[in-house]
Amino acid sequence: MEHLDFPHFLGLLFVALGVAKLAGHLAQAVGQPSVLGELLAGVLVGPSVLGVVDPSNETVHLFGELGVVILLFSIGLETDLKALLKVGGSSLAVAVVGVVLPFALGYGLGRGLGLTVPVSVVCGAALTATSVGITARVLTDLGRLQEPEGRVILGAAILDDVIGLVILAVVSGLTDGHPVTFWGVARTTLVAFGFLAAALVFGRLVVPRLIDLISRVGNPGTPTIVALMLAFGLGWLADQVGSAVIIGAFAAGLLVVGTERYHDIEAGVTRLGHLFVPLFFVSVGAAVDVTVLNPLNPENHRTLVIAGVLTAAAVVGKFAAGYAPFWFRGRKSVIGAGMVPRGEVGLIFARMGHSGGMLDDGLYAALTVVVLVTTFLAPPLLRYLAPPVPGGFVPTDHEGIEDLATEG
After folding, report:
1. What is the pTM (predicted TM-score) of this model?
2. Contact yes or no for 117/178 (Cβ under 8 A)
3. For residues 78-86, average pLDDT
């Protein structure tokens, strides 16, 4: 990988952050999530268009990977395990079907299109993700986050993230050259859940006391630094025991929730994420070779066909999952639409497959198109199925959310 001199590095940061923030604001201005703008900005400054940002550069790559760790740490910070356990069977049904069905469709279509088993697994895995951040933002804007459908969507999306972390660990093993076997998948699953469980059990005994003790030191930012050290340390430890770095970062976020300085830590990590996470999305977008999406070139027809087929499978698989809890009496179409966006989680799968050499430029571009289309489709689809509530949230009936979610 090419090294950057310091002035060149500063110029790269100036361009990457500038276009990411500008494109993110423009995306929000037209009713789309900022991540979509950041992705498109990355495509614009990437080698296939302006050639300003080279995603294969070692410095760019490391900044992007750090962005992934901070992103997963933030997802852990936003996950309330107690609330998750109270959501009910509806979220579990949506989550399971929302993982199994898209994975089966992606894998089956991949094999039908002549892709190898490992590559088909990566394609199927990329379709299992659901973006909690994008869905939550849209539901909040609509004033429907606390409605029964909103709570079921968020619970299922969080469960998808947990299941997705295990799948991601399996994909990580594939990219390292390990074959797909039942015992291999079982071992990876046990290691992932075992590490997560051990980290939570032992961490609950130590982390809250440690952060509360350090918070009394009085130095500004110290709790946030300690929390980040925890994320980096658990990420390293997860890798050492054969799991994925992001599982350690996610576990660290779960451990910090509820501590005395939780809100200060969340604010600090969010500010840090404003720097590193957009760089991750820009680097992901920059890796897209737009020339492989030119329909006038016959050599690109296969890439476009794969992108179209996988996009259809991605939408159908998640939308159908909304109808899995047949006992739920709310609007199942809203649940299905809320599960559609792949967002940042789907990009992590695609990025891992590409950097591991399993996905060529065409397949990587195809999966990125899937993420872009589903991310772009979800907000207007949710607005159509669940119009904004004037003045904010208004309860739809007198029954509790959990009763609606678990009835039957």
Report:
1. 0.72
2. no
3. 67
